[in-house]
Amino acid sequence: MSISTEMAAFVTSDVGAAACADLVGRMQLWGANSLAHFAMGTILGVLRFNLQVSHLVIWSALLILGAKEIFFDIPGAGFDWRVMLDSLWDVACYLLGLGLVFWAILSAPGPEAAS
Q1: CB 45 within 8 A of CB 101
Q2: Which residues, in sequence order, are CB contacts of 106 under 8 Å at separation 6+?
Q3: What is the pLDDT of residues 75-97, one digit of tens each?
Q4: How confident is the model at residue 38 (pLDDT cuts 50, 70, 90)?
Q5: 81 FRET partner, CA 20 to 30 A, in 25, 66, 88, 89?
Q6: Rounded to an integer, what distance in angstroms lies between the CA atom of residue 76 and that of residue 91?
Q7: CA-to-CA distance for 41 and 101, rounded, in angstroms?
Q8: Do residues 102 and 59 make contact, with C-beta atoms less than 8 angstroms apart?
Q9: How much is the pLDDT for 41?
Q10: How far is CA 70 from the centre of its chain?
Q11: Contacts of 89 (CB under 8 A, 6+ apart)
Q12: DSSP of 10-74
């Protein structure tokens, strides 16, 4: 048997389909998780600008979210490096969502630009 026939057999087999489904499922979970963290940061930005919530409340919420990642997620997984990277990515998604709202509102032309 050649490598090409073995690869063709793997790709068309149930094992190959299960491996692809598992990979796609993990990527969907990662994407949904990232989107949820991004949305949480976006909500904090909207609370700050549209509802005039104090900046101390927003920074406190970000500190609580960061503390949750550091003190619960990482030790709960036994300080695994993948969980540390995941927690870092989660915090980056929070900040990306918050930063997007800041950018969108602060870069919009003000009333002086209308005249």
Answers
A1: yes
A2: none
A3: 887 888 888 898 899 999 999 99
A4: very high
A5: 25
A6: 17
A7: 9
A8: no
A9: 92
A10: 16
A11: 34
A12: HHTSHHHHHHHHHHHHHHHHHHHHHHHHHHHHHHHHHHHHTS---HHHHHHHHHHHHHHIIIIIH
User: Cα(84)–Cα(73) distance, rounded to whole angstroms?
Assistant: 8
The one-letter amino acid at 56: L
Question: What are the tens digits of pLDDT across the range 2-36?
Answer: 777 766 666 666 666 677 777 778 888 888 999 99
Number of C-alpha atoms within 13 angstroms, CB side, residue 49? 15
Q: Minimal CA–CA distance to 73: which of 47, 45, 41, 37?
A: 37
What is the pLDDT at residue 16? 66
Sequence letter at residue 28: Q
CB 90 within 8 A of CB 83: no
Residue 8 tokens, joined: 């063709």
Q: Which two tokens stand for residue 108?
A: 């919009």
